[in-house]
């Protein structure tokens, strides 16, 4: 990573084990580690979540560091996936913001890119605990009624 290349904080379908991780991140990362975004809440969406800044909660996710030489392509791919067209663009589904996230292993703050809900996003119900993975059944374990 060179100066100005921030890691990415992912909290939904880009997390390890989720479908977009395999499509967009596999083979393009140097490291991935658990982290959380303080001062935010997580909302359900139409198949993917929205992080909304504000409040006293936190969003659980992973800090993703691009592999050497992969940063530019990864940034462009994630901007496309997240429907980010530039700061404040009216067609944005997400805004890409520089935020301090906290590494779980040592509590250290780390600046990272985070895609947060943009003005045109319509967040659904809040996900208690701020963890996208908690709302899904464990793989291979049926959900009981």
UniProtKB/TrEMBL annotation:
<dbReference type="InterPro" id="IPR013024">
    <property type="entry name" value="GGCT-like"/>
</dbReference>
<dbReference type="InterPro" id="IPR036568">
    <property type="entry name" value="GGCT-like_sf"/>
</dbReference>
<dbReference type="InterPro" id="IPR009288">
    <property type="entry name" value="AIG2-like_dom"/>
</dbReference>
<dbReference type="Pfam" id="PF06094">
    <property type="entry name" value="GGACT"/>
</dbReference>
<feature type="domain" description="Gamma-glutamylcyclotransferase AIG2-like">
    <location>
        <begin position="8"/>
        <end position="133"/>
    </location>
</feature>
<protein>
    <submittedName>
        <fullName>Gamma-glutamylcyclotransferase</fullName>
    </submittedName>
</protein>
């Amino acid at each position: 990573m060179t100066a100005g290349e921030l890691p990415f904080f992912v909290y939904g379908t880009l997390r390890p084990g989720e479908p977009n991780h395999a499509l967009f991140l596999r083979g393009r990362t140097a490291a991935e580690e658990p982290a959380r975004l303080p001062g935010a809440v997580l909302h359900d969406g139409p198949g993917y979540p929205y992080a909304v800044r504000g409040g006293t909660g936190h969003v659980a996710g992973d800090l993703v560091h691009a592999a050497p030489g992969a940063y530019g392509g990864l940034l462009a791919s994630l901007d496309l996936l997240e429907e980010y067209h530039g700061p404040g663009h009216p067609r944005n589904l997400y805004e890409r913001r520089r935020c301090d996230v906290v590494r779980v292993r040592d509590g250290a703050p780390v600046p990272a890119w985070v895609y947060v809900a943009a003005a045109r996003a319509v967040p659904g119900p809040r996900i208690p605990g701020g963890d996208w993975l908690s709302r899904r059944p464990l793989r291979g374990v049926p959900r009981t009624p």
